[in-house]
Write a structure and sequence with these properties.
heterotrimer, A alpha/beta (about 160), B alpha+beta (about 400), C alpha/beta (about 160), A: about 160 residues, alpha/beta, Beta Polymerase, domain 2, five-stranded mixed beta sheet, about 25% strand, C: about 160 residues, Rossmann fold, four-stranded parallel beta sheet, 4 strands, elongated, binds iron/sulfur cluster
């Protein structure tokens, strides 16, 4: 386990262990975890906690790193919270090469800037797209559908959802 | 000199000299190209005919599935999961269903688990069949397409029998499966398990020792075990490099630990190795199907939870409570306790995972699909470097990327 | 074969028709689709070309990789905002006369994906002749659409499309 000094909080969610670290320490923590055997970064993503009443969140964006130890088959989720516009966090593509595209996707979808990434461009959306689609205040879009009560709600995702 | 192919994707042409006296040439491969398995676009720097640099550009099939899931209720989301990796819909359903069940802390009955395994293996077979048919076609073995799609159609007929739909079955749902299997389905499955080994022999007779197939695939697209691990490759890409990692065995789910099967691996690390792995996997899948069919337990196929699944039709006529549950379920759906969870299952392409964050409401806060194609595609550059452009087709083919899975 | 022998062999089998009908007949029975697979529907499109369903019975087995050699674009699958300009380019590259079949719910209306990423119906960018419902439509549905299209082509003759 990484040194307790890095860990802010830890727990288990539905059977999956997780730890929280401070955002500036993410690179350090992941590098340490890699030497401890968590050699595979399964995925990296983000959750937008805008208007989320389920608990009090330290910040709006939660960046999630799912790690796996291929020998012992243990899994660990590393979480960190960031704020700002745009939010910044260190890139970890040098520790885990598959993070390269995952970080580009997270940038594309949430507008999170990964400092130190070699080529932080949009990956899924067209290059001239405006906005970050997976943010909660970005409307689902599409066209209104007759006889559907819910469509209006989708359009204004932030406070009603 | 800089050529801007499109905004954001710049390719520098420095007039760099290639090894053959000419200049490096930048070409665009896709997104509309018959050999890219969908809408993959590659920007390739060619030296003569050899690939010196390669840059995949994806997103041409970005469907907004993750956003769509946030706008749908938990049970509606199943429909959408079918459609991201469109060659293995029930496996996507399974990942989602397992994740929701894990968050809610429910266990499905044994018969549901067995049916889930049956559907997963049938899908794996049909996915490999489509792969083999189209890859064969791309490398010039046109008849493979005809043979493989014949058997795939048998599988789709079975899908239709059990769920009423050919491709996007939505059969596996949180809380169990859509409906119990019909006797006819079991008969069809039995017949299929008898016929299929012979068909696999047929494919092998057509390809395994075929000199053209061998010379197009052996030694092409080498991915060492080290590289595969570092790049996070999963599925036949990893096993084709000799690493025995299969989630069905390494981190079993849905009762896979009770089945007797082998993990297919090959030490060849090339396109041919990946082909051998898939052939072996097809044989193992038939074995699993046979075991599942022989040991199919009796009992219910859904959890007994009126808050999660609608009551049976008969109850609606007699019980007021059932009507209320029914109404609630179809107007606002159920809610899932807050928390987040990650579940991974093995699809035909590798690790197909589903990460769900719930905020306790009746819609997910975030659903993320960890798709095998997205990660495996990053290994393409490593595999294709210094190969001929024509070999790219074999390499893309055996990587078996599904762009719907990749772009979601 | 000498000209007399040819006349002999034809015997009395002379057919008179209008040029429009002849051209319509020829065009209608040799519709070459562009090989343009997008998503799940494309798999069913491939299935249509295989032995079980056999689109060759209707003269359309020649899926051309180049738009310049094809008459028919089967939009088989969802069209994303990123793909839309490319689809239009391919359509523009096809020589006249050309037709479009919109295969599946996604291509026709956006299907289950009513969201920011997808074009809500391919008819926003290209004119569509036949829509096929279904998600995905069965291969037989595609054949049916092709037959409907053939009827139209035959009726159209040499006139330019309205
Ligand atoms: S209509 Fe259905 S099958 Fe066709 S592309 Fe859309 S989601 Fe896929």
């Amino acid at each position: 386990m990484i040194s307790e000094t890095l860990i802010v909080e830890k727990g288990v969610s539905a059977g999956d262990p997780w730890v929280t670290v401070d955002a500036p320490k993410v690179h350090e923590a992941l590098a340490a975890l890699k030497t401890e055997g968590y050699t595979l970064l399964v995925f990296l993503s983000c959750v937008d906690h805008l208007v989320d009443a389920s608990r009090s969140w330290p910040a709006r964006y939660e960046v999630v790193y799912q790690l796996r130890n291929m020998e012992t088959r243990e899994q660990l989720r590393l979480r960190t919270f960031i704020e700002g516009d745009p939010p910044h966090i260190d890139s970890v593509h040098d520790v885990f090469p598959p993070a390269n595209w995952d970080e580009r996707e997270t940038y594309d979808m949430f507008g999170i800037v990964f400092d130190g990434h070699p080529e932080l461009t949009r990956i899924l959306m067209p290059d001239d797209w405006v906005g970050y689609p997976l943010r909660r205040d970005y409307p689902v879009g599409g066209e209104p559908v007759e006889f559907s009560e819910e469509h209006e709600m989708w359009q204004t995702a932030p406070d009603k959802a | 000199m800089t050529d801007t192919i499109s905004r954001g994707v710049t390719v520098d042409r420095t007039g760099e000299a290639g090894a053959f006296g000419g200049e490096l040439l930048t070409i665009n491969f896709g997104p509309h190209h018959p050999s890219t398995h969908g809408v993959l676009r590659l920007i390739v720097d060619l030296d003569g005919e050899q690939v010196r640099r390669l840059k995949p550009v994806i997103g041409y099939l970005h469907t907004g599935i993750e956003k769509q899931m946030e706008a749908l209720r938990w049970q509606q989301g199943v429909t959408v999961t079918d459609r991201h990796d469109y060659l293995s819909p029930p496996i996507n359903n399974l990942a989602y269903a397992l994740a929701v069940e894990k968050l809610m802390g429910v266990e499905v009955p044994p018969r549901a688990n067995a049916l889930r395994v049956i559907m997963s293996e049938l899908t794996r077979l049909s996915s490999h069949l489509v792969w083999m048919g189209t890859s064969g076609l791309e490398l010039g073995a046109m008849s493979m397409l005809m043979y493989c799609f014949r058997e795939r159609d048998t599988i789709l007929d079975m899908n239709e029998e059990i769920s009423g739909f050919r491709m996007h079955t939505s059969y596996i749902r949180p809380g169990g499966v859509m409906a119990d299997s019909t006797p006819r389905f079991l008969e069809m499955l039995d017949q299929f398990c008898r016929d299929m080994p012979g068909h696999v022999d047929e494919y092998e007779a057509l390809l395994t020792n075929n000199p053209i197939w061998r010379s197009r695939t052996i030694g092409i697209g080498i991915l060492s075990a080290e590289d595969a691990k570092v790049l996070g490759a999963t599925g036949p890409m990893l096993r084709g490099s000799g690493v025995a990692w299969d989630l069905r065995r390494s981190m079993p789910y849905s009762g896979y630990e009770n089945y007797d099967f082998e993990i297919a691996t090959s030490d060849m690390c090339d396109c041919y190795g990946r082909y051998l792995v898939r052939i072996k996997e097809m044989r193992e899948s038939i074995k699993i199907l046979r075991q599942a069919l022989d040991r199919l337990p009796d009992g219910p196929v859904n959890v007994d939870d009126r808050k999660m699944l609608p009551p049976p039709r008969e109850e609606l006529e007699t019980s007021m409570e059932a009507v209320i549950h029914h109404f609630k379920l179809f107007t606002e759906g159920y809610s899932v306790p807050p928390g987040d969870v990650y579940v991974a299952v093995e699809s035909g392409r590798g690790e197909n995972g589903c990460y769900i964050a719930s905020d306790g409401t009746h819609k997910p806060r975030r659903v993320k699909f960890r798709s095998a194609s997205f990660v495996n595609l990053q290994a393409l550059e490593r595999m294709a470097l210094n190969h001929f452009l024509a070999d790219m087709v074999a390499i893309i083919g055996t990587a078996d990327t599904v762009l719907g899975d990749c772009d979601r | 074969m000498g000209i007399e022998a040819l006349a002999e062999s034809l015997g009395k089998n002379i057919l008179t028709t209008s040029l429009g009908k002849l051209v319509g007949w020829g065009r209608g029975n040799s519709v070459w689709p562009a090989q343009f697979g997008l998503a799940c529907c494309a798999i069913e499109m491939i299935a249509t070309a295989t032995a079980g369903v056999d689109i060759a019975r209707f003269g359309s087995e020649a899926f051309r990789a180049s738009p310049r050699q094809s008459d028919l674009m089967i939009v088989s699958g969802r069209v994303s905002q990123k793909m839309a300009p490319i689809l239009r380019t391919i359509y523009d590259q096809m020589p006249e006369p050309k037709w479009v079949i919109s295969m599946g719910a996604c291509a026709s209306t956006g299907g289950v994906f009513n969201n920011y990423a997808l074009l809500q119906g391919v008819d926003k960018i290209v004119p569509v002749d036949v829509y096929i419902p279904g998600c995905p439509p069965r291969p037989e549905d595609l054949l049916n659409a092709l037959m409907i299209l053939q009827e139209r082509i035959k009726a159209q003759g040499i006139l330019p499309r309205q």
